[in-house]
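= Paired protein data =
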Amino acid sequence: MSAFEMFGFGVDGWGGVMLLGASMTVALTLAALAIGAVFGALVACAKLSRFRVAGFLGECYTTVFRGVPELLVIYLFYFGGSGFVSAVAHWFGSDGFVSVPPFAVGAFAVGMISGSYQAEVYRAAVLAVAPGELEAACAIGMSRATMLRRILIPQVLRFALPGIGNVWQMSLKDSALISVTGLAELMRESQVGAGSTHDYFQFFIAGGVLYLVITGVSNRIFGRAEAVVGRSFKRNFARN
């Protein structure tokens, strides 16, 4: 079978399966990035807080999830989560093993890892804002909500976007590890196709090409977003 037939969209072709796997990878990475944004923002606030306990807890979070291998984190969440859910189900009279949804566990695990990196991105972006601007806003009596909306958040977004783009690429690669849970994402579909046809080289090359396509498109999107935010910031600066 030729490569065109193998990766076609006919009855025996694997093209549709590979594209579905790629779409699952993108969906998983988007969910993980959103979860990581929530945890990252909270941890960044904790590390910037004047309270030592909050700072210590934030430091523990980033140390653990940046120091422990990603695959181990996924195993802990998947098998540990299934064990916890099964234990809770046994308390209510249920028997047997209760598995957790691979997509939810994968998105949460990768999201927690992503959050540890996003926290540092947000913290650095906040520290990059000139203190004089915030002091001037306080001096003219600007409310905290207005200060956040007009000064802090736009600049944090501008400074954080390049770092968030890097975190996205990292999470995209980490999503390949979710294949160990059986989720039908791109890496898993590449493995299944290679095992079914015994044509490992072509399937893993095809999987790599799709990863590069996703990476290239996402780089263009983040680059465009950075340009738009930069122009918007310059216009607002000129008006002021």
